Amino acid sequence: MRFHILGLPHTVSSKLFNACAYTQKVVKFGKMMTQRGHEVIHYGHEDSDLICSEHVSVITNKDFEISYGTHDWRKNFFKFDLNHHAYQVFFRNTIQEIAKRKQKNDFLLPFWGSGVRPICDAHPDMIVVEPGIGYGSGHWAQWKVFESYAIYHAYCGLESVASCKQNSYEVVIPNYFDLEDFEFNDKKEDYFLYLGRVFNGKGVDIAIQACERAGVKLKIAGQKDDNYSLPDSVEYVGYADANKRKELMKKAKGSIIASQYLEPFGGVQIENLLCGTPTITTDWGCFAENNLHGITGFRCRTMGDYVNAIKKIHTINPKDCREWGENFSLENVAPMYEKFFTDIHNVFNGDGWYEQTPEIFLQANKKQYPKKINSKSKKTEKTKKILFFVENAWCFGKIHNELIKILYPEIHCDILDWTKSYSYEAIEYLLQKYDYIISTPHGAFVLNNSYAVPLNKIGVIAHSNQDIKNICDEKNLGPDYFNLFKSYGAISPIVRTFSIAHKVKRIPKIVEVGCFKNIQNLNKSKEIKKIGYIGSTKRHLDNKTGFDLKRSNLVSLIAEKTNLQLVTFEDLPFLCAEQMYSKFDVLMFSSVTEGLPTVAIEALCAGIPVIGTETGIFAEIARNGCGIILPFDQNEYVEQGTKILIELKNNPLKYQEMVTNCIKQSEKYDWTNKKESWIDFINSLYE
């Protein structure tokens, strides 16, 4: 997706301007969406410092000087007016620069709301989304994102209780935070903290009185009007930059945020939680959603409540605060935005409200609650422990190392490398340590034949047709051998079909392989220059037929005929995947049989089109516009593969269309959308 994000005309899009929540939204949104492979174009001050695809300077320090002179926003509140010179220059230049860059279905995001509306009105052909409404008036865009249900419900008004007029495209997505900006600390010093604009509307007077009555020290940090006086009982540290802010929050016993209005979000509350610092807040606005009473702090209504909360702050576990705060990380909030932007695109390009979206989107709003809450409703269950008996190298190593990460903490898993030899004592110990072992049919045979591991302690997953042929034909154990395992699975429907055709009566469960986001959208190429081939280039002969199952020589022939560079990877550690998928523009494979293949899934997630034979799930990948199927016949494979690559080489737009399709489909193959099949298989071992 492409986003045009507007900075604020009176600030600089930089972490230095951390006193402005709207400016920080711009900065964090740039990082959040750029790192997920989206194109983000930022328009703002020449000194802006943020992660984005392109920064466009539309206002200068000279313009600031004309409008604001020597005004010190660190000591006083920000000054801004739509009639200021800075605003007028910002409007004029941004309108012009957007016109040079905008494309169909681009999003235009005014984080400052109606404060930059003239720019949005100048581009009615763009999709304008108010991306984080925390302001009490001036809402106008068709597509709206509210920071909390508190402000959303206030916007809807009481009349919405008695009428059915809610809009599915006015949504709630919380503010988001960069975990790198906060440091967890559970070793607290002897003071409480007030951090924010110093005026009674934010409840600074309540914080002062409550701390005086409780007999505790209070530190105050933030912008303060010169006429606002503070008592000698508090320590005023002035404006706090990013580092000072972090130090103050992580060391405080608790933080008091007693806003006297319906706080739309109160980002400082989440920032404190991320430092492991409990929060004491009012009992309205966003705090009713974000401050879990008795878990992350306390919500108060009277002075007596505030004093008691201060005295009971030691009962709050800093780890619970951090755990809840992480729900608002860039990583956790980004999918909520992606879901909403996808829903909007579907109005223009799909079936709108009726469009079937990936199941992963259903999890976008899911929150992780502290264990203190979970323990009240869930009985303590014994942790499941699984040992994978596989080769700890590509691609088994990659799949199972990623499974270890995605299944934790629900299931604890480890890998035992089958390329090594072990003593009987070691295997016996492992059988006591782990509940079950998961391997391939061949791996299970080795465990049983070489180490006397009972077959009912093993769950078997067939990763290819060869796994089934190896047991039934080559080892002559027959199809009934699969009935002896504790559970039986297959890596894809085509492997399951082969199992049935091979007269295995036991129907395997389907377990699906995914891909982590660390390789998603790596492809930045505009045209095809390099072909990638991943895997051994040696001949892999079928024991009975003598056929070469991989046929890498066919890809080499195509590279020669198309004058494209062939980049091969074999015996490469799977930890190098990110580097590998950035080295070529199209992936080819020529296998006679595959279970998936894994490399096709990973290439798709990296934004790389795939060309290969109709094995495993590749037909599904090709059907979604991410790849092209070639015939199995060697001569036809080379002939058609050469023709297709030359066409793509000469037609960059067609190639880019395939790249775009890959990026769209990548979410479908994310591990978070695939792990349930593995959990289901593992649970079947315990039945």
By CATH, the architecture of the largest domain is named 3-Layer(aba) Sandwich
What is the domain total for the residues?
4
Mean pLDDT figure? 90
The CATH class of the largest domain is identified as: Alpha Beta
Radius of gyration: 29 Å
Tell me the strand order in the biggest sheet: 3-2-1-4-5-6-7
Strand content: 15-25%
From the spread of the alpha carbons, the general shape counts as globular
Number of strands: 24
What is the CATH T-level topology of the largest domain? Answer: Rossmann fold
Distance between the ends: 45 Å
Structural class call reads alpha/beta
Give the % helix.
Answer: 25-40%
Which spans of ≥5 residues are poorly predicted at pLDDT below 50? 376-380
The total count of helices amounts to 25
Quick structural summary:
With 687 residues, this protein is an alpha/beta fold.
Tell me about this structure.
With 687 residues, the chain is of the alpha/beta class. It has 4 domains: 2-172, 3-Layer(aba) Sandwich (Rossmann fold); 179-328, Glycogen Phosphorylase B (Rossmann fold, 3-Layer(aba) Sandwich); 384-514 and 676-685, Rossmann fold (3-Layer(aba) Sandwich); 519-669, Rossmann fold, CATH 3.40.50. It has 25 helices and 24 strands. Strands 3-2-1-4-5-6-7 form a 7-stranded parallel sheet. A 6-stranded parallel sheet has the order 10-9-8-11-12-13, with helices on both faces. The chain has a 6-stranded parallel sheet with strand order 15-14-16-17-18-19, with helices on both faces. Strand 11, helix 8 (267-274) and strand 12 (279-282) form a beta-alpha-beta unit. The longest helix has 20 residues, at 330-349. The protein is globular and about 90 Å long. Residues 376-380 have low confidence and may be disordered.
